[in-house]
Write a structure and sequence with these properties.
With about 140 residues, the protein is an alpha+beta fold. The protein is about 30% helix and about 40% strand. It contains three helices and nine strands, in the order E-H-E-E-E-H-E-E-E-H-E-E. Strands 3, 4, 6, 8 and 9 form a five-stranded antiparallel β-sheet that branches. It has a four-stranded mixed β-sheet with strand order 1-5-7-2, sandwiched between helices. It is elongated and about 50 Å long.
């Protein structure tokens, strides 16, 4: 049985797909983190975000996070999906879904996965404003 769903796409991400993957009759808790593009940051109006990444390495790192979460927490399944390309306000760049018998493990694993993804996965974000653009964290 496959306990991880790792996906990078230039297409729109689907929350229901992630939910459906982790759902299981043995699980009493499903935690979802859905990152969305917001319209402002640091008192500046955001027009769009542009995500780029080194896909082969990003997929490996995302799988590593999923395996570590499965080993570290009492979870059943985990989905980690990330979008690349230009995303508009309200679009979804990242979804993490985790199922477990009890809610605490699902919450903890979900938090671990998004925090670790932001630290280790080679996906970069460029914020576009009306007066320019800036890379966030690091550059490709």
């Amino acid at each position: 049985m496959n306990y991880t769903s790792i996906h990078i796409s230039f297409e729109k991400l689907n929350v229901q797909d992630c939910y459906n993957f982790v759902q299981d009759p043995s699980c009493g808790g499903i935690a979802l983190f859905v990152g969305t593009v917001r319209n402002s940051t640091k008192n500046k109006t955001v027009k769009l975000l542009d995500f780029s990444g080194y896909e082969p390495m990003a997929l490996k790192e995302m799988q590593k996070i999923a395996i570590e979460a499965l080993d570290k927490f009492q979870i059943h399944k985990i989905a980690i999906h990330h979008a690349l390309g230009e995303l508009q306000i309200g679009d979804i760049p990242v979804i993490i879904a985790v199922s477990s018998a009890h809610r605490d493990a699902a919450f903890e694993a979900c938090q671990f996965a998004i925090d670790t993804l932001k630290e280790t996965v080679p996906i970069w974000k460029k914020e576009h404003f009306e007066d320019g653009e800036v890379w966030v964290n690091s550059h490709p």
